[in-house]
Amino acid sequence: MTNGKLYHGASLYPELWSRDVLMRDIAAMKEAGINVVRMGEFAWSVLEPEEGRIDIGFFVEVIGLLYENGIETVMCTPTPTPPIWMSHGHPERMHVNEQGTVMNHGARQHVCTNNAYFRERAALITERIAQAVGRLPGVVAWQLDNEFKAHVADCLCSSCKELWQRWLERRYGAIEALNEAWGTNVWSQTYRRFEEVPQPGPTPFLHNSSLRTMYRLFTMEQIAEFADEQAAIIRRYSAAPITHNSNIPFHLDNERLFRNLDFAAFDSYASQANAHAYLFNCDLWRNLKPGEAFWVMETSPSFAASLESYATPHPNGYVKAEAVAAYALGAGGFCYWLWRQQRSGSEQPHGSVVSAWGEPTIGYRSVLEAEAARRELEPVLLASRPARAEVAITYSDRAKAFLQTEPHRKLNYRGLMNDFYKRFLALGLYRDVVPEGGELTGYKLLFTPFLPYVSPEFLQRALRWVAEGGVWVAGPLTGGRTGEHTIPTDAGLSELEAWAGVKTVYTYPMEGTGSVGEAFGVTAPLSLWSAVFAPAGRETAVVGTIAAGLTPGLAFATERLHGRGKIVMLGSLPCGEAGDLLLQKLIGHYADEAGVALRSDVTPGTLVVPRTGDDGNDLWVIINMDGLGGTVTLPREGLDVMTGRKAAAGALAVAAYEYRVIRMEK
Amino acid sequence: MTNGKLYHGASLYPELWSRDVLMRDIAAMKEAGINVVRMGEFAWSVLEPEEGRIDIGFFVEVIGLLYENGIETVMCTPTPTPPIWMSHGHPERMHVNEQGTVMNHGARQHVCTNNAYFRERAALITERIAQAVGRLPGVVAWQLDNEFKAHVADCLCSSCKELWQRWLERRYGAIEALNEAWGTNVWSQTYRRFEEVPQPGPTPFLHNSSLRTMYRLFTMEQIAEFADEQAAIIRRYSAAPITHNSNIPFHLDNERLFRNLDFAAFDSYASQANAHAYLFNCDLWRNLKPGEAFWVMETSPSFAASLESYATPHPNGYVKAEAVAAYALGAGGFCYWLWRQQRSGSEQPHGSVVSAWGEPTIGYRSVLEAEAARRELEPVLLASRPARAEVAITYSDRAKAFLQTEPHRKLNYRGLMNDFYKRFLALGLYRDVVPEGGELTGYKLLFTPFLPYVSPEFLQRALRWVAEGGVWVAGPLTGGRTGEHTIPTDAGLSELEAWAGVKTVYTYPMEGTGSVGEAFGVTAPLSLWSAVFAPAGRETAVVGTIAAGLTPGLAFATERLHGRGKIVMLGSLPCGEAGDLLLQKLIGHYADEAGVALRSDVTPGTLVVPRTGDDGNDLWVIINMDGLGGTVTLPREGLDVMTGRKAAAGALAVAAYEYRVIRMEK
Amino acid sequence: MTNGKLYHGASLYPELWSRDVLMRDIAAMKEAGINVVRMGEFAWSVLEPEEGRIDIGFFVEVIGLLYENGIETVMCTPTPTPPIWMSHGHPERMHVNEQGTVMNHGARQHVCTNNAYFRERAALITERIAQAVGRLPGVVAWQLDNEFKAHVADCLCSSCKELWQRWLERRYGAIEALNEAWGTNVWSQTYRRFEEVPQPGPTPFLHNSSLRTMYRLFTMEQIAEFADEQAAIIRRYSAAPITHNSNIPFHLDNERLFRNLDFAAFDSYASQANAHAYLFNCDLWRNLKPGEAFWVMETSPSFAASLESYATPHPNGYVKAEAVAAYALGAGGFCYWLWRQQRSGSEQPHGSVVSAWGEPTIGYRSVLEAEAARRELEPVLLASRPARAEVAITYSDRAKAFLQTEPHRKLNYRGLMNDFYKRFLALGLYRDVVPEGGELTGYKLLFTPFLPYVSPEFLQRALRWVAEGGVWVAGPLTGGRTGEHTIPTDAGLSELEAWAGVKTVYTYPMEGTGSVGEAFGVTAPLSLWSAVFAPAGRETAVVGTIAAGLTPGLAFATERLHGRGKIVMLGSLPCGEAGDLLLQKLIGHYADEAGVALRSDVTPGTLVVPRTGDDGNDLWVIINMDGLGGTVTLPREGLDVMTGRKAAAGALAVAAYEYRVIRMEK
């Protein structure tokens, strides 16, 4: 969502401050270059102080004041913080956590979003807000709720119980089908009726894996349906596009959630040490609504904090680099949480743009730098768009749910994926992180690590794409589970094996077994739950051999042609420094083989974003993210768009947090 | 339980798979040499899908099919996994943990085994199974339930509350007696009626020690009574011997539990690094039903795992060594959990013999090796029996319960005992681990470490045995508590002091005090809660003196003749490397003094099991357990039973995981 | 409370033992020099075994027996351990913890002290005890209850809910005022009625800071009111002074609690490694009831312990040093917990003076040493009193409550304060730790570290004192919060800034930012949440400058004259070894500037306590606390009071744990 400009925004809570403070904030925002605010997401009690007494007038007026001052509004629905009239005396409406503890009024997300009364009141307040502000010229977009399922995961309340059992009935039709799908005959858990299927509350040992995973999927589906409901109401009164401020750790299926929304947005509070996690988000959210600019809806101008702890403030210069990276990677907005420090509540220490007493904060200078960059870059970025990558990495919140059910030694999908992703940055490979259901056409190289369940739909799509020339690297931890979170009974990796031309000889955990693999000239320890292969037929080549451990001589990596493309199986995760090198060699090898051209020779810590100008020329946005400066090799002569000077082919230096835009003729 | 053969078995779940899979499994088991399966323990919902609709036909048929194929059956009662018709809508039947959380249906052991309705239904299903299969020729033995109290400890449900109060009434007669025994006047906890005595639920600080320990003893007694009930029912319909698959970490009094069962069995998933824990089990379970072969009812062919985590796979060769060690140490059966990998449930990653898709697993080769060894050893082992050891170490689940109540810095009875035991292996001393009530006659040397309460019965028995020539080493942490888990008021170690000829001058924790002890030429730091002695009379000799710390000059180890034997007091635990050496010297010293002959000069990591042939000759089974190989000194010329060659006196080498059987004439 | 002697005491539980044991204990106490016992605090069920059946006769008799033997009594009210007749069948009377768990009968503090029935029964038993023993000659003092709020913090029972809401109503008058004060409009938490304001039970994320802090203040006020009630009842029947055995970790406002009591007392079980924490207590408790001797009501003769764990026994000699330090620093009593080891309950392993079987323990020798010292020192200490310090450090349990609500990375007020305090010991500066409301007149130098809220009352008092010549060092972490636990909206440190002549340019956390400060010739890393200053006007001098980090050139320490004194702002905490040095330089600098004379040149680990004799001369009590011995420089010639010899000016050596008393003429 760009709307003909790049947005630079902040969260504003006019309902918490006097009119006088608001007027000063508006003036200060103008001065700082803030051109959009997000507001309303926690304001339910202001809008409806008593059940049914609704008045949206306050926000109508604020939106007007802002608009008069050149500041547009992302309006929110206030559903994450139901007022006291909803919760007081109604424990049955509250969220119930996995230990069975009923939440009290306080904090946020305390009411169950599946409670019928909540849904009714949420629909009403949403409708009234949409009616009142939906066509105001200042309202440029909508955000639903706030960070769905950030603080809560599965709810075990009785409303959820009933919905869960109905959801199961729709999914399985007959209880016998559920029993069969889940293998409930293990431990005599067999159910006779859907009303008997429990929620995953406390038990002496572990619940059935299918029950746990399905409950996660149920939760993710329900919250997405709530988003659908809200969006449908808003659309009756407003043409402004709708989004949600999501993130990877939340208990959501982001692909499903954004399916019915208009543009994608995320919140990120990664510290500089985790800059790769921030870039991972940009590369993923760009692909949740392809072709539509995503937003960084929240990030700190300096540091995140709550009463419990505070993070490290960003170094000076880093926020500018973050903003430039986001815009270059396809963001239409870059927004701070929050404009004015909270004076009360639970997050008072959190970094802001101005303090609770109205002065610039430690982050203020960074905001000015980001704004200067935005102004400078706006024309060139609006006249270009991020290149489509040639390399795709599949992201799946369903895979995340599977790994939560089956965490082994606290394996964490997010951490595994971020680590895997880091290597693409190190190799200077431009990449898309693509949701499981995303289009593959156009990519040359596909990675699907940590994807326990490869759905028939995905498999068919991937195979078609391989047949047309793609190179698919599947694994590690890919393909060993069914869609019901059980073990395949036909083959270790089920149908995938035949296509990949392998037989899974063994599956077992490699830690502590002295397992070592050799591939691409590198010898490295192997780790994690692994699948060990034998080639099935002459067409399969072993590219990674187990050199030591329990199964020497067998393969941990293979490849096989399929149509005009190739399927590469990676059955284990090389680890340690040598493992890192092995994986980089593997990625580099297949990037070469697949003919990946969108890459650059760049020092680590500096990012190159290739974009395509409306004039057809190539643009490289180069940003130093680590504060150490770096160099990048320009493949051919170009023009430094900011200075108007020529940029010679060869090494180009960038200073700490510096950005450069180089146009190179096609 | 040997029944004229050595059993090699696996757990089978025919109720989870098709008839076709079953037939393939039977064929594969035959091929692998599996001659017994254990089954039925989780099959309640198959046998009784609706309350009262019971049909055992399925297992009758499977037992028959197996038997036709030479495979016998250990049949189980299915009580660890009550079906949904028992738990649904009945929270009052569920287990309640120490935090007061009521369990949901799911996992296993979720229903309270003291609930009257559970007992009634458990009795009925047990009777019906016993009726149906009790006299089938394939049924070679019974297992009650599965791993009693593995996932749950004390239950705080209202059924247990009532039983607890009745149990107390039987134990104490009058509430005044309980108050006096427990010293409830501390903190005004005095009760007026048994109905007032609480279960050990949440309190602001610690419960009375007696209440906590007695609740553990109550729990252990109740579950043993449940086992008694089940056994009695089965015996009405079957002559096959009855066992249970127990283990040390479970919340059980194993001695009491097995009193009314026919043979002993345990489950062990120790990794190779904890091989000593596995051997400890063999040495203990052999002595739970003396003269009757025990079974290793469950062990992994490769690695244990659940959805939460997985262990390290065993090295190739180790499973064979485990099997040989078990058979040599007196096992009649060595069985895997499980034959076919689960496709669903909570333990899918767990090591198995064949995979969910029917192929040999990483552990399969180990199973074949174990079977080859079994076949080779069967004749010689059936024609001999483990020697009775000359050294006994007392094991007490009551002591475990005491240490759970009073864990100091997380002291753990199991860990303390295993560490203590390790030194006997290192010294090549053949040993029995003997339950508290076990017969002492025949032993030369007795150790009773970590036994807070020395009962009058035990004391009298030990004293009689000492008087006849035994050497008894009491301590550390032995004797400082009464049977009610209070402190003696007559002397620090109560009556034991007089017999040992010591006065306990002080008791105090030695960590951090710089305490150092000297004994047997070694100086070592002292640790743990310690009793510090002065000799009481000239007949007591100090053998360990405190050289530094708060009480220099006093004794931590003493000895005194009693009849033809000797009582050695060990008041403190020497620690660190020097402490290890000191303890080895101490053990060695008293082994010499007691004239212990059943020992061998063997390198660490290799096990020597002395057995006595029916021909009266000595057999040594020698097994390398650490995969590094080793040597043992043969005291005299013998015959290598496997090769038929002479084995010269002196050093005999064994290769990694190799086993040898040497017959030496008496 | 000295009553013309120095008390040396122990806790006695005659209700737990036979008459015979009591008589032996009395004889042994006489022999050991114990001249006071504390008793009765857990004896409710002995005094009132059935509701309303009260008989205090037992204690009347014991008090008499003791008194006949020269032993006086501190009598306690038995309210920490309500009998079973109060708790059985009454969950609504029990304490409910922050997770909502209802306590069971057991341990202590299990009944909510705000429950109306509890209050009624507590008043009655207190009255009956006071009536019975209040005028006995042996009763020298009273202790209320025992360690209020040691095991429990905020209670969430329904009695507390109602009281909380009434308390809020009294505090705020109208719900609108509460909403405004707490800023409940954040997250739509706005309440419509006081009955809607929840207790701080479980929520998905953090509660409002004001709610959490106010609940803590409410809890602290309620328990103090309970103490007031008890004291008022006792005073109707007894003239003996009343105290409570408190400590810093308990959930109390000690200043408020002791306001209506007669003398101060604390319990301390600090190990030698934390000797500074013990001295901190002495320096604080001396100032809770200025001019009145405090008591060390409980300390271990050797080590603290419970069933869960035990501490390290004190080195020989250390208890004597503790006793001398306490008496020198103003203690009127030094008492052990406990005389005779418990035979039952939950604390059997705890160090005592005699064992459960009546023998001297490992700590007995220490008791004799302490008694010898007491006897030697009594005349000289009773004829003198501790000097009033020139340096004050403000202590605030309200500040502790604020930091509990907002712990950042587990910041701990106690730990921060103890660390800060340590430096005064190292510098040989004699100091008072003064409660927030304590009188400042007479001090030359004041430190107020870690005081988030500087109340107007405190500010005005401090300013008046500064105007008259005091030097006030404010910070770190001082002044950034309002009394409602919100952020000031006028300036970062609110009103304090104007007086200190600074503008808080930024507030932010310095960890990880490379922040370095320079002051007093030392360069050190800066840490914690920091306020960074610019001088506001020429009168403000920068004394500490930020040399590196995000805000180089700004100040972290400033000073400004105010009247005849000076306000020093310290915005950050220097850390590491260099930070320690910097702080020592800073303290030393301002001690010089303020003309602090009560200091000594003493090696670390040795304590100098300046006292003033009734004859006007100076007395120095010198005690080695670290067991390493040390030296102190006598500023002028004196007399060694113990030996009667001259003590020359200059270096005086003290041996390990030795104490000396030097009289120097004024």
TrEMBL record, chains A, B, C:
Catalytic residue list: 147 (proton donor), 298 (nucleophile)
> In its UniProt entry, what is this protein called?
Beta-galactosidase
Cellular component GO terms, alphabetical? beta-galactosidase complex
Enzyme Commission number: 3.2.1.23
Q: Extract the Pfam families matched here.
A: Glyco_hydro_42, Glyco_hydro_42C, Glyco_hydro_42M
Provide the binding site for substrate.
Answer: 108, 146
Metal-binding found in the keyword field: yes
Catalytic activity entry: Hydrolysis of terminal non-reducing beta-D-galactose residues in beta-D-galactosides
What are the GO MF terms of this UniProt record? beta-galactosidase activity; metal ion binding
Q: Which organism is it from?
A: Paenibacillus oralis
- Positions contributing to Zn(2+) binding: 112, 155, 157, 160
Checking Gene3D superfamilies in the record gives: 3.40.50.880, Glycosidases
Q: Kindly state a single biological-process term from the GO annotations of this entry.
A: galactose metabolic process
The residue ranges of the Beta-galactosidase trimerisation domain are 389-596
User: Which family is this sequence assigned to?
Assistant: Belongs to the glycosyl hydrolase 42 family.
Which positions fall inside the Glycoside hydrolase family 42 N-terminal domain?
Answer: 12-373
Tell me the domain of life: Bacteria
InterPro entries named among the record's database cross-references:
Beta_galactosidase_C, Beta_galactosidase_Trimer, Class_I_gatase-like, GH, Glyco_hydro_42, Glyco_hydro_42_N
Question: What residue stretches are annotated with the Beta-galactosidase C-terminal domain?
Answer: 608-664
Q: Which UniProt keywords apply?
A: Glycosidase, Hydrolase, Metal-binding, Zinc
Q: What is the lineage of its organism?
A: Bacteria, Bacillati, Bacillota, Bacilli, Bacillales
